[in-house]
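User: structure tokens for this one?
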Amino acid sequence: MVQNNKDSKPLIQPFKANAHLLKLLGDELIGDDRLAVFELVKNAYDANATSVDVTLNLSSDNPNIIIWDHAGFGMTQDDILNKWMEIGTNSKRSKNKVRTPAPLNRLPLGEKGVGRLAVHKLGKQLTINTRAKNSPEHQITIDWPKLIGEAQYIEDTRVSITPLDTPKYFVSETGTRIEISDLNNTHWTRGDLRRLKRLLTSLISPFKSVSDFDVKLEVPGRERDVADLLEAQDILDKALWTYDFIIDEDGQFSSTYAFNPPQTFKELASSSLEIKDEKLELLEPSKEEELAREELIRESLLLRPEDLKGIGPISGTFYIFMKSPAVLNAVGSPQLIKEYLKEQSGVRVYRDGIRVFNYGEGKDDWLGLNAGRINMPGQKIDTGMVIGGIDLNLEDSSGLNEKTNREGFDENDTYKRYRWIVASVVEDFHLKHRKDREALDMYLKGDVKDASPATTRFAESIEDIKKTIKKHKLEEEMSSKVAQIESDYHQMREVTLSSGIAGINLAVIFHEVERGVDDLNESIRQSDDYDTLLKRAEHLAELLEGFAPLLRRNEQKTFNIKALTQKIVKLNQHRFEHHNVAISCPINTDESDSFEVTAPYGLLQATLTNLIDNSIHWTNLKAEKEGSGFKPAIRIDSLPNWFKEGPALVVMDNGPGFSLTPEEAIQPFKTSRPGGMGVGLYYSDKVMETIGGRLQICSPEDLDLPEAYQGAAVVMIFS
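Assistant:
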């Protein structure tokens, strides 16, 4: 048989879209009824309307929903045929995305070309009346079930468009009126209506005046359901902390911080802090965040102008609350504040003053605040404590693209950088509010102390957790983690009471563990999601594991300190070179005297490494701020006769020095480093204490150090 290798002529055919696609795009793409109304109101903004009336006639014999924009562009017959009836039109995208005429000068928020189909989510019958300038009023009517049922493909559907000889709604103005009837949902509860009002209120940033756009909601016959909602400003005025920031197009960072305790807390002083045109220190990036940066700046510790590509300037405002009864009672209206925070807390995003859904909505935690608070509950905020807004410029934030379902931005590299930058701003607030938060906590605690032994409290909490886990049928997922925490805790207690390190006060660590156990128990009781429970349990385990080397029975040995410094320099040589740090260690070249110590070698190695890590970070930070004229430098040297207790080893650098006092710096969970846990120096201090020595933070003047090393100086003193 002879095969014919000649190719057959290809068939060239277009795709066909089934008419049912209209239902999919409208009914199933938009998340819920509230979001559908939200989308139609955003369309009114794009149409240059100055105000929108939203009316839900739910008590009438023929329930309907009306969205009526005033002074908007309206539509001509040509607009209806060639824009409104074209699904996915590019009339608002790319080169077509232009500002509306002065004085409003708006850029369109929508760009997918499918938002108009949100009407399908709400009801089966649609009537649109619209009038453009120098054009008659047109009426569009659609019976959705009939439209889709009588056509196989979208191009076969037929829509009735009627030019009206006499205007029905727009006699003297332009605009568009949308009426949706035969509603899919007529059973709007009181909660549904209140959430809709809050959603429409949140469309316009409460932190940035947008006087040219107003949204009004009316619910005839159901007015009482939405009558007693508090205005945003009534609540914001009761915040304990306020924090504003601006990042300009050059990456310059300015912020204003204020602490306003209740007037009845007379022992607490208010405070404020303002900085202008500084560089924002960024959190340590995840691998994804690092790769989202341009390659040449990936190791930069500070925000660079290149990081803002596709994002543009960023500004924002945070109002932070504490939900403890004592604070809420002191500021007044405690129940109203709790209810408002339950509905409205979170960090929202606005572009040109208009909200980007669904950031800050419900359980959304796009900045990871809740996970951060799990790790450091006394120093971090969670989504339930903050009412915040982040503002973007629509024209400059072209790299942030909204998802088609209107639930946030596409998670591309630009978004990953944006989220990381904002999270770093939140961390700046955390660091600034630390002292005031501690003062407030101390005030609230007063002289009241829990008289029950710590071990008893811990045992009771663990038993509660076990019972709660069993009740919620979480034994398989959580029991092993809880058992590990219980075992490590008891081992830690036993070792600290043994003769090896008798007298060391680890009470603060124990307190943190015990508080974490209580938080875990409360999370289980509240049926928090599994990821939250797991993070709480893992944090407790990591906290105990982090101090494990300190608690082990490390073998004492006598060795020359030069052996330790030589090993440390060798192990870190690649890091010194990578970070362009000049390292000096006169002990290694016999320019300074060495000495012998008797101590656990591994603990001292970990301690010295920790001090080196700190110096590398802070000298690099200073290098970035000061530019190419600054060279990071670290020196490890001996002080054999400086302290009466015995010889000492000092790690000094030419960084910015300590912003915390020496007493604060060695306390656990206190840090000025973004994202830092604040346990490194505390750990080092306890190591020195275990071997009978001590750790001391000195000023360069105290030690008469070389002129080149006028930054931090941390001394390990041996007895």
